Amino acid sequence: MENHNLTHEFPELEEKINDFRLNDEGFKKLYVNYEEVNALIQHYEEGEQNHTTDDHLTDLRKKRVHLKDNLYSYLKE
């Protein structure tokens, strides 16, 4: 499965991501939410939890994209 960790998605912004995670509560909240959704998707995709539907997995992926877009906008400000 593809790695969707935020620092993998935006390696050029790794230092800024780490700084915001430690010093900005708004960013930290979005980051934690993104990581939780990403981990849940990975569990489903790897078959560790197979009690979901395709629709639910699609909704989780859409949520991950939305969170990633918000985080990227935050980082580019």
List the helices and strands and how they pair.
Layout: H1 6-9, H2 14-23, H3 25-45, H4 54-76
Helix pairs in contact: 2-3, 3-4
Strand content: under 5%
**Which word captures the global form?**
elongated
Largest beta-sheet details: none
Gap from first CA to last CA: 31 Å
Stretches where pLDDT falls below 50 for ≥5 residues?
none
State the helix count.
4
Q: Fraction of residues in helices? A: over 70%
The radius of gyration is 13 Å
Following the backbone from N to C, one meets helices and strands in this order, namely HHHH
Find the structural class using helix and strand composition.
Answer: mainly alpha
| Extended strand count | 0
Arithmetic mean pLDDT: 91
Protein name: DUF465 domain-containing protein
Q: What key phrases describe this protein's structure?
A:
77 residues, DUF465 domain-containing protein, mainly alpha, DUF465_sf, elongated
Structure, described:
The chain has 77 residues and is mainly α. The longest helix is centred in the last third of the chain and has 23 residues. It comes from Kaistella gelatinilytica.
In short:
The chain has 4 helices and no strands. The protein is mainly alpha-helical and 77 residues long.
